[in-house]
Design goal:
It is a single chain. With 193 residues, this protein is mainly β. It has one domain: Roll (Pnp Oxidase, Chain A), CATH 2.30.110. The protein has three helices and twelve strands; from the N terminus they run βββββαβααββββββ. The strands form three sheets. It has a seven-stranded antiparallel sheet with strand order 3-2-6-9-10-5-4. The chain has a three-stranded antiparallel sheet with strand order 1-11-12, with no helix packed on it. Strands 7-8 form a two-stranded antiparallel ribbon. A hairpin with a 5-residue loop joins strand 2 and strand 3. The termini are far apart. The structure holds flavin mononucleotide. The site of flavin mononucleotide has 22 residues, from strand 3, strand 5 and helix 1.
């Protein structure tokens, strides 16, 4: 058993592959796929997306100062890939994917109806890092699909079959291994008969 040296690069996987929706100041809409994304703060709720300046969406985000992050599901995998390999410069990706376009609550960038979770964001900081510029953004509204709510008001994201992106490929989540804190949780004693 040994280790092979890899050149320093992006190897932090798996990641979500989200669909980011943007609306320009003139009202034109676009979608792009983003994997360089993550949560950075709980309170205020904040996340980031890192975007290459050559993306068509880049200036749209800069001009509008906002975007919506739409989580993706196994059913949406084809469209997620498509929006990451075609540009809004010469494609109407909303039209071509056939996604249902819903109005956002707090910002202009629309929501994808088929997404189980839509996260409306306002850009608070823009950091040019090199190949990518990071947009640090505050989450100003979240919508979830009521199909995945149970009668106790708990949201079951896993029922939507979210996908992850790992080293060039898309996967579903596989089987449940545990829940938050399960390693220290006391096991319920079996009731005596
Ligand atoms: C799985 C996947 C993840 C991607 N992640 C990013 C990313 O994090 N940042 C980025 O700038 N481009 C990313 N891309 C590429 C853009 O989505 C792609 O260049 C897209 O065509 C840009 O669209 P636009 O020109 O309409 O803005 C990703 C593509 C795929 C397929």
């Amino acid at each position: 058993m040994g280790k092979i040296d890899f050149k320093p690069g992006n190897m932090l996987y798996p990641l979500p592959a989200v669909l980011v929706s943007v609306r320009d100041k003139d009202g034109s809409d676009n979608l792009l796929t983003i994997a360089w994304t993550g949560t950075v703060c709980t309170n205020p709720p904040m996340l980031y997306i890192s975007v290459r300046p050559e993306r068509y969406s880049y200036e749209m985000i800069r001009r509008s100062g906002e975007f919506t992050v739409n989580l993706t599901t196994s059913q949406m995998t084809g469209a997620t890939d498509y929006c990451g390999v075609r540009s809004g410069r010469d494609h109407d990706k909303w039209e071509e994917t056939g996604f249902q376009k819903l109005p956002a609550k707090r910002i202009q960038a629309p929501l994808i109806g088929e997404s189980p979770v839509n996260i409306e964001c306002i850009v608070r900081q823009e950091i040019a890092l090199g190949s990518h510029t990071m947009f640090l953004a505050e989450v100003v509204h979240v919508s979830v699909d009521d199909r995945y709510m149970d009668e106790k008001g708990t949201f079951h994201l896993e029922q939507a079959h979210p996908i992850v992106y790992s080293h060039g490929s898309y996967h579903d989540l596989g089987r449940l291994l545990g829940t938050f804190g399960y390693s220290v949780r006391k096991k319920k004693r079996k009731a005596k008969k």
